[in-house]
Amino acid sequence: MTDTATSAKRPKVSKPQSVRQIMSNVHIWTGLLVGWILYAMFLTGTVSYFREELSSYMRPELNLMVEQPAEQVAQSVLDTIIAQDPGSPLVLMTLPTSRNPLASAFWRTPPGSDAHRPAFDRAIFDPASGQKLSIRDTEGGDFFFAFHFNLHYMSPLWGRWIAGLSAMFMLIAIVSGVITHKKIFIDFFTFRWGKGQRSWLDAHNALSVFGLPFHFMITWSGLITLMLLYMPWGMQQLPNMQDRAAVNSEMRFFLPAGQPSGTPATLVPISDLVQQAEERWGKNSVGSVQVNLANDSNARVAVARQQAQRISITPQYLLFDGVSGELISAKESSGPAASTQGVLYGLHLGRFADIATRWLYFLISLAGTAMVGTGLVLWTVKRRSKLADPSKPYFGFAMVERLNIASIAGLSVAVTGFLWLNRLLPLDMAQRAQWEVHGFFIVWAITLLWTCLRPARRAWLELLWLATLLLAALPILNIFLTDRHLFNSLQSRDWLFASFDISLWVFAVLHAYMARRVTRHKAKNKAAAKTASNKAAPRAKPNTPSQPDTPDRQGQEP
User: Fold this and answer.
1) Reported pTM
2) Of 9, 79, 107, 472, which residue is least crowded by CB atoms under 10 Å?
3) By its UniProt entry, which PANTHER family does this protein fall under (predicted)?
């Protein structure tokens, strides 16, 4: 009897957590702390796989263009720039591709130009005539591409550090998630509909396993793209700027302008140099042309190969004397370190992909976006059932839930609003492209404010239905504002515009389905149910031992 009393008074010693339990906590909190940033990075990165196509969709006044010879395009564009700024020390031209039918260029303004002019000028050109195009000012798909690693309204350096730290947390979440779910591959084939928390967990597991190698690759390679920012010490050991420039030239195509001789000279026709490059690499293989010190005896012309023809993005180019046309050097290979970095960078960007591979990139990346989103929602679903009063959650829970709604449903509204602004803003509006971007963030901020003012369930429903309406109505709006609406696109076999309009309707259906699921969902309050059952249960008689937990209840959450 004494032994029994003594043992009853002994404090219970908690068992140490297992490795899987520790990894579960790591997975939960690393995913939650940066989950909202990761969701935005994943979604905008997913859209960026159709960056060129989206930019074309956001310029509907540009009709389908006939393919022009690369040498003709390069020569005509350069002639236009030199006629405007004959003393420009550097001109970099990007030639049309199968995905982007336009030519573009940026160039340094000549020394002694108007002080109000920026250091660099840029424009888009008609490939047929080489003249500047007067088209609507828009960032197009470039905005989403830049946002997914630079963020916005801050220094790009800060944005890249935040994106990099989020990617590091993502890697930890991936590894800890694999360790936590010991049956992760078995669970991939398990999905229980309408089971609340279990359904969210099954969806999260399935989406994670579906693209697990891709998720790891895309996160790791994303860090590799900015490795010199996160680990700059090797570059800092190089003694001078020339050596650092040589290292940079191994990884990206850009040649310093050099020093002018001061002796005027006539630039060789660059069309001949582009033609030489195509004879060496094949037709439509030239991606860009850089001209340094045009009309100077030290002129140089570099003709670079397209990145779309290979996985690695390490530069391959031919360097010519700009006066004689003599081939100075041919860079067609790189060292092991640069090649490794180039392959990983190329896998991240996916520029080598044909249309089928690009759609595969898009769908798996979209699954990664959904993986992050389901993980965020799972955090609130799991804890909501334990709240004493779900209508009055504690501050931390309410903050996470509101951020989830604004980050997931609100971002869908903001992205679609960006496309609406592209159609509705006046074409002659000053700083039009910037106001498209400002409008994106204004709409996103409004969704966050709306989420904070409305009950969580109503906020989910209203934003999802709003996204559905905006997505479904945009192709209809095109009928009134453009000539390249769905009916005309199908008749003229303009598959780019037709596929975009149809895709918008597909995503409208997806958002409507999610809204319907929210409408039908009935939250269960386990804490309240347990309290009610305890009050209703008769009290046990004194000295009557309580019944032990039945096997089917052991280990379940209250």
Assistant:
1) 0.87
2) 9
3) IRON-REGULATED INNER MEMBRANE PROTEIN-RELATED, PEPSY DOMAIN-CONTAINING PROTEIN
